[in-house]
Amino acid sequence: MAIELREFFEIVGLSIGVSLAATAFAAAVSLPFGTALAIVPFRGRRMIVVLVNAFFFWPAAGRRRVGAIPCAVAFRTARLPRIALYPDGHGDRAGDPRDSHHDRACPSRQRTVLLANILPQFTAKTGIAVNVVAQGTGKALDTARRDDADLLLVHDPEAERQFMDEGHGATRRQIAWNDFIIVGPSADPARVRGGSDSIAALKAIASAQAPFVSRGDRSGTNAAELRLWNIAGQTADILNKEKWYRDIGGGIGQALNAASAMDAYTLSDRGSWLSFNNKGLLIIVVEGDPRLINRYDVIELNPQKHAGTKLAVAKILADWLVSSEGQQAIGAYQMNGEKLFNPSAALPK
Q1: Angle at 86 between CA 83 and CA 91, to 5 degrees
Q2: Looking at the 3D structure of the chain, how many domains does it have?
Q3: E-state strands within 186-222
């Protein structure tokens, strides 16, 4: 009997030892793996998290999931607002072959040089660090609809009005404006160089069937281009059937590079054009049309629909952008000696 009891306790002890060792091993493996999943962005991360949760019967993540945080810098402070920001222009490194993708998540890689210049002033004054999520306007608005952003800086008036009509936005204020331009090959096959009528220019381009590059990415620039084409009597359905009209589905850098390679026309914001280093034979052919004014609005989210976001902190940034200090910072920004933004909070265009 004594032997049986002794063997029994040995078996129990061995089982406990094996269980503890297995637990320690699992913790040693899972902790760094779980941490990596939480803070390191990579393709397929969300699918891995879903599969792991399903395997261990863990509950699915809530709406404020880890995947919503673009980079580890989001953990720097609990007061960190996340901004879904339109990146096209303001110093887009369009000519840099290392920067071929138009969506960036980490602030250190933002191509939006304007914010890179003015946000440090805001952080120094308030102690609030801002994590920028750079997206085209359409994607940015969708990001906010999903509660994955706390503030919007966008430039597509029609899409913004729809966003507000849906009840997602609480306030919408203009902070600045600049302009679009039409660029094209110096040979100018459509004979539009030197003009200031964008609609007449587009009609001439269509008539000459001269190559035209469209971003086709639901950005504010793409929306502005399609509105102009519509006024010129060309719908998107008609244009997409034309061989001379090239919808590339990419960012402004890709559009300008394609236009340069193809000797084509395209619509660009002035900031992206100034920073573009691969102009080749491209020149500005049309500018100065009132229809080419490019307005930038800051939108605060509606707390009744987006209660989980950091709206109080985001409001501090929104108020700063329209304040005299923020407006002065925006107006002081220059590229190649040229002022790119006209502050307009006091007198919206």
Answers
A1: 115
A2: 3
A3: 212-214
137-148 residue pLDDT tens: 888 899 899 988
Q: Are residues 114 and 212 in the same domain?
A: no
Residues in the chain, overall count: 349
Instruction: Indicate if 134 and 169 belong to the same structural domain.
Output: yes
Q: State whether residue 227 is helix, strand or coil.
A: helix
Report the distance separating Cα 248 and Cα 218, nearest Å.
Answer: 12
Nearest to 314 by CA among 1, 82, 41: 82
Per the structure block, which two tokens stand in for 241?
A: 């059937």
Burial state string for 212-237 with b = 16 or more CB within 10 A and e = fewer than 16: bbbbbbbbbbbbbbbebbeebebebe
Residue 349 is assigned to a structural domain of this protein:
no
* pTM listed for this prediction: 0.67
Domain that holds residue 196: 179-292
Please say which residue of 256, 277, 292 terminates a domain: 292
Residue 164 shares a structural domain with residue 247: no
DSSP for 136-178 reads -HHHHHHHHHTT--SEEEE--HHHHHHHHHTT-EEEEEEEEEE
In 10 A of CB 176, how many CB atoms? Answer: 28
pLDDT in tens, 233-253: 999 999 999 999 999 999 889
| Each residue's pLDDT tens digit, 306-338 | 987 689 999 999 999 999 999 999 999 988 788
297 within 8 A of 169, measured Cβ to Cβ: no
Plot region of 127 (φ>0 → left; ψ -120 to 50 → alpha; else → beta): left
Distance (Å, whole) CA 289 – CA 284: 13
Q: What is the DSSP string of 1-58?
A: -HHHHHHHHHHHHHHHHHHHHHHHHHHHHHHHHHHHHHH---TTHHHHHHHHHHHTTP
Q: Are residues 145 and 183 in the same domain?
A: no
Instruction: Verify that 130 and 152 share a domain, yes or no.
Output: yes
Which residues lie closer than 8 Å to 242 by C-beta, 6 or more apart?
A: 206, 209
Looking at residue 32, its pLDDT comes to 56
